[in-house]
Amino acid sequence: MPPYDLVIIGGHLITMDPAVPDGPATIAVRDGLIADVLPAGERPEAAAVVDATGGIVLPGLVDTHRHTWQSATRHFGLDWSLMDYAGAAFVRLGPAIGPEDVRAATLLGALAALDAGITTLVDWAHIQNTPEHADAAVEALQESGIRGVFAYGWPQTDPMRWVVDSDEPLPDDVHRVRAALPDDHGRVTMALAARGPELSRLEATRRDLELARALGLRTTMHLSNAGSVTRLDELGLLDETVTLVHATGCADDELKRAADLGVTASVSPLIEQTMPGLGTPATGRLKAAGVVAGLSVDTGIATSGDLFAQMRAALAQHRQSGRPEPLTARDVLAMATSGGAAATGTSERAGSLTPGKRADVIVVAADTVGLAPVVDPAAAVVLAAHPGLVRTVLVDGEPVKRDGVLLGPVRKALDAARDSLDRLRHAAPEVFGS
Ligand SMILES: [Zn+2]
Known about the structure:
alpha/beta; 2 domains; 15 helices; 17 strands; globular
């Protein structure tokens, strides 16, 4: 038996771990873990070899919030406001979505994420219309091979019952799903997608957060308004298990308080800038306050599904804002990796090229007309990388993309998503303008 299962040779590492130097090195994988980072040129015996010569080797990227169930209805809401989106996606499309639509969209979205080098995905699943909807999402995440965090939300069957003025508890099925996903260190784990004080009454928020604690789950919630953090803090509901999605309108002192409590954030730079009503990305203010933040795609209905585009959007928006704190390529890379891992509770397993962590590793081709010659690898990745340059993706040391080819059930996912879109066009024609 060779000492390692797999080695990655010839690449330039960006480790995102201050204790592991960047530069040319060999990564050695055993039992799904990064076993060793060895000097460049070392090529220990291994069952498999990934030749990353001319490539940049990074930790797998982390998407901290994506409504994956919307992945089969892509790119047609670019001109919508937040209110347009809410009306279309939730009021009209939501009740028409069946379990097979969730399965198709989740498989497609998860494969698209892997193709783009995203190895950890928070599937923000506020589509719990029936238990079969939950099962379909979890099974699709498992089939895709991604490190999935299934964030159980609420049904889209009746907005007046579940959100707005709701004080309804989340469906009891959440207990069954938790019992089915008991392993907090497995490939697919669970979180709670809470409604929060801006989508429900404070009583429902309190109940959601207490439920998450009782079930031993992290909580992720959309929150954009000044005062919301204070209201939750006054009830003792915020701690390091809570991630705030957007946090665009939170006051600076609220962000400082959130940082003190260990609360993390998820910034969706493209959608926040393109969809009127979401506010201005808080990237710089979060950094100034000391809140650890990750990046997120949010919804494929109106944004790009890859984090390279999100990194560029975050950087450009911050530079344009004129805020005083510097934001570097490395800062936005940290949001897409180690910060994202913190905001998903996966820091012990993912987010950096650290011996002992799971071998979630990607190789970006850099000996290409778009990137070479590389002077600053971090800047090259942030400014010019894209999913087409992601050559290799490993999750738990297992290839899910090899030599630029995605290995999962791609044809099946495309066919199922097309069938789902056809069904939804028929079921909710007004959403599609036909
Ligand atoms: Zn969202």
